[in-house]
């Protein structure tokens, strides 16, 4: 399956690209600085540009069968603006225009899925994030609404505490208050979950929480 990846130079995004290539998928990655991706492969196409560059986004999405977004906001308290939200809106608009339906991305349990039951994370995480990373939380809300408010066939994986530990292949997923989902998860396993959603129908138009 031909897949376009956004956020490909981040800690999770780079692993997504590598796992897709290892699985035989042709990949197109939109990156601002190609040297940061540090990957070469016959099945990898790199488009240089920013999310604010609509032509670059259109070029990256062209010919794709699915999009995986590992985009996330900066956690710097000094950050302002809605660059990631605006960029995600551009991705959604481009996907609709090019009739690419499948979107797989990331968010946080600070945002609830309708299938969740009441849970402490719904109360604690938004307050903590609002105090420590107010702009990041606003960005996460904005980019999530840009996707869930569209008619795309989306899966948004909610993560709490990504780590750099080795992959375990032990992945828990589900909805808060229903399923036993913890907090910590290796970035390699997060990437594996995102890639697995290309062929997994369980969480279509849903936001599962995931962990190790």
Unreliable stretches: none
For the record, what is the CATH homologous superfamily label? Answer: NAD(P)-binding Rossmann-like Domain
**Share of β-strand residues:** 15-25%
Round the Cα radius of gyration to an integer and report it.
Answer: 16 Å
Biggest sheet, strands in spatial order? 3-2-1-4-5-6
Structural class: alpha/beta
Would you tell me which CATH topology applies?
Rossmann fold
Number of domains: 1
Q: Indicate the CATH architecture.
A: 3-Layer(aba) Sandwich
The assembly state of the depicted protein chains is single chain
Our count of helices gives: 7
Globally, the shape reads globular
Mean pLDDT: 92
What is the count of β-strands? Answer: 10
What is the helix content? 25-40%
Distance between the termini: 27 Å
CATH class: Alpha Beta
Provide structural commentary.
With 212 residues, the protein is of the alpha/beta class. The strands form 3 sheets. A 6-stranded parallel beta sheet has the order 3-2-1-4-5-6, sandwiched between helices. A two-stranded parallel sheet has the order 7-9. A two-stranded antiparallel sheet has the order 8-10. 42% of the residues are buried. Helices cover 35% and strands 20% of the residues. The longest helix has 15 residues, at 83-97. Helix 4 (83-97) runs parallel beside helix 6 (134-148) and helix 5 packs across helix 6 (134-148).
Feature tags:
35% helix, two-stranded parallel ribbon, Rossmann fold, 212 residues, alpha/beta, 6-stranded parallel sheet
């Amino acid at each position: 399956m031909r897949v376009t990846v956004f956020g490909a130079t981040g800690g999770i995004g780079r692993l997504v690209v590598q796992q897709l290539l290892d699985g035989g998928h042709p990949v197109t990655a939109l990156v601002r600085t190609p040297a940061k991706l540090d990957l070469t492969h016959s099945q990898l196409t790199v488009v240089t540009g920013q999310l604010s560059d609509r032509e670059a986004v259109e070029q990256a999405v062209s010919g794709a069968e699915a999009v995986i977004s590992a985009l996330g906001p900066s956690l710097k308290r000094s950050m302002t603006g809605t660059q990631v939200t605006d960029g995600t809106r551009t991705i959604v608009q481009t996907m609709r225009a090019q009739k690419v339906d499948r979107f797989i991305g990331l968010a946080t349990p600070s945002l609830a899925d309708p299938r969740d039951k009441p849970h402490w994370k719904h109360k604690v995480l938004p307050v903590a994030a609002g105090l420590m990373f107010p702009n990041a939380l606003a960005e996460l809300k904005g980019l999530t609404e840009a996707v869930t408010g569209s008619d795309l066939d989306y899966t948004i994986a909610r993560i709490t505490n990504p780590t750099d530990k080795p992959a375990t292949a032990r992945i828990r997923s589900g909805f808060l208050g229903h399923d036993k989902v913890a907090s910590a998860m290796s970035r390699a396993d997060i990437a594996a979950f995102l890639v697995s959603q290309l062929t997994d129908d369980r969480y279509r138009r849903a936001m599962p929480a995931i962990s190790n």
